[in-house]
Amino acid sequence: MVQNFVEELKWRGMLAQITPGTEEFLMKNVVSAYLGTDPTADSLHIGHLCGIMMLRHLQNCGHKPYLLVGGATGMIGDPSGKSQERNLLDADTLYHNQEAIKKQVSKFLDFDGDGAVKAVMVNNYDWMKDFSFLDFAREVGKHITVNYMMAKDSVQKRLNGEARDGLSFTEFTYQLLQGYDFLYLYKNYGVRLQLGGNDQWGNMTTGIELIRRTLGSENEAFCLTCPLITKADGKKFGKTESGNVWLDPARTTPYAFYQFWLNVTDADAERYIKIFTDLDKETINALTEEHHKDPGRRILQHRLAEEVTTMVHSKEALDMAIAASNILFGKATKEQLSSLDEATFNDVFKDVPHYEVSKDALGTKAVDLFCREGWQIFPSKSEMRKMVKGNGVSLNKEKVTDAERIITSDDLVDGKFLLVQRGKKNYFLITVK
């Protein structure tokens, strides 16, 4: 029994455009639907998550999801909101990226079941690599007029000066290539619905038009898009000062990933918890109501960060992210500090004052090392001694009881770090090289 996929997207704020008859078709049939993504990197970032969550909700509602990796289209670029063409990737790189993406998406979709809704990954490079230009012009190009292609918003924006170099022929043909993907999947896999972001609407409807003109107007095909996810202030979602927030823990640590969601605004948390989690309407409404009673507790942000971090990484990664957060903002031990990998350690303390010394500095008294000229850890040696007596100084989360104690290699965290804490909130990181 299928559930109402369109209604699910509506209340979650994940529906932008939809072709007539789509909801009715989905309620009467188990529908195969696809969403495309480009393998231009070996990791997705959170900008891709809305589309992946659409596929997840689709599968949960009793339909069959296809993830199309654009091995062919990813080579040439897409005029929809992009200012430059993409670089050509070699076959080995494309394959590596595809496998890495499948591994990530496997946390959201069931690729292993044997039922009618098992997820499938396809790559358009497989059906495009031997398709000659002459064959493409004859079998595809003749069905869609230039007038039709020119009318698309994505093309018009490029022609009207959004890009300095105009629109290349390669990019102009992108909508035909994407349209052919829909036609190919329609004929060979029985795919009837294409999902995507609303910046893809023009390319997606070209697919419907190509299906009708190639196979006959009685052939039904549908499109459905999600809105472009932005922050409450209208700025682009998913970017930080250091760049994209990636799903790959080697690119964005689970701690930094968790912190991204934890630090969103109240308005964004209310929207994002619907879009990026599986929580049902009643649970989200209850959380929102509780949040409004006491916004300072940031209930929505904490639950959002927990849900998304667990889904993308694991419960263990979430626990580590929370433990890492507590090191800065709560009580922690030297053992917990030592348990952090170097990438997470650097993420946790990236904003604290940072100093470097050579290994020759080991064997020095704490008061001499921490009160070096030019450093801002303590105003003076006498001030440090005074704070040590008042239990106001810690090294690696342990109280310093003697300002004259000798700092040795045994004090180093991960063989290279000294974390000095003055008072409750002032941290200083010393790297020993």
Quick structural gist:
The chain has 433 residues and is α/β, with parallel strands linked by helices. Helix content is 44%, strand content 12%.
Give an account of the 3D structure.
This protein is an alpha/beta fold and 433 residues long. The chain contains 20 helices and 12 strands. The strands form 3 sheets. Strands 3-2-1-4-5 form a 5-stranded parallel β-sheet, with helices on both faces. Strands 8-12-11-9-10 form a 5-stranded mixed β-sheet. It has a two-stranded antiparallel sheet with strand order 6-7. Helix 10 crosses helix 11, helix 12 packs antiparallel against helix 15 and helix 15 packs across helix 16. The protein starts with a helix and ends with a strand. The model has no long low-confidence stretch (mean pLDDT 90).
Q: Can you summarize the main beta sheet?
A: 5 strands, parallel
Shape: elongated
State mean pLDDT (0 to 100 scale). 90
Poorly predicted residue ranges:
none
Number of helices: 20
Strand content: 5-15%
Kindly state the number of beta strands.
Answer: 12
Proportion in helices = 40-55%
Please give the radius of gyration in angstroms. Answer: 27 Å
Structural class: alpha/beta
Task: Give the neighbour order of strands across the main sheet.
Answer: 3-2-1-4-5
Distance between the termini: 63 Å
